[in-house]
Amino acid sequence: MRVGVAVGVLVVLGWTYARSVQRGSVNPFDFFGYFTNQTALWSAIVLGATGILLLLDRIVPASLTLARGVAVACLIVVGVVYNGFVPGTGSAPPWVSAVLHIALPLYTVLDWAFVRDHPSLPWRSLWLVLPYPLLWLVVVLVRGQTDGWVPYGFLLPSRGLGALVLTSLGLLAMLLAAAAAVWALSRLRVATTADVGSRR
């Protein structure tokens, strides 16, 4: 199923980008400047790679499992921010927003929590959730100051330095909380049919 979900996400992203090109927006840096689109692409890659390796009965590298955990944490932030703070915004069709902001985050969390085919993530690696979002945030803030483009209204330079700092800290705190939940979920053992059978 992971491979199918990965292909579906890539199709949605490709269709949405093609639609934006038809509407006159051809800059891929703008399209993939959205944290949602970047994270969806990353999630599709790690989900697809994990699914293919398991179908081939190959060992999934620890680095890929870690990348998947980071992607799940980032998608939790995507879902919470969009549905909790900026619902209904953006130029994408409603069904695209539903796929990327609701369906994909829900699927990845449920898959991570209930499909126990990955090892526990060590707490010492929790900090690795930060580099990608921090880099994205720095690039967005620099672009906002230089060419005026930002993907989300809450990152507009016109809001002032203090508001941007508080917003950034709030987002990073939310990310760390999401990552802690993902790391904790990786350490929980959910009973499976095989487990139940082995206890009889």
TrEMBL record:
Source taxon at top rank: Bacteria
Record's keyword annotation contains Transmembrane: yes
Assigned keywords, A-Z: Membrane, Transmembrane, Transmembrane helix
InterPro entries membership: Pr6Pr-like
Transmembrane segments: 34-56, 63-82, 94-114, 126-144, 164-185
Keyword Oxidoreductase set for record: no
Protein name per Swiss-Prot or TrEMBL: Integral membrane protein
Species of the source: Microbacterium oleivorans
Higher taxonomy: Bacteria, Bacillati, Actinomycetota, Actinomycetes, Micrococcales
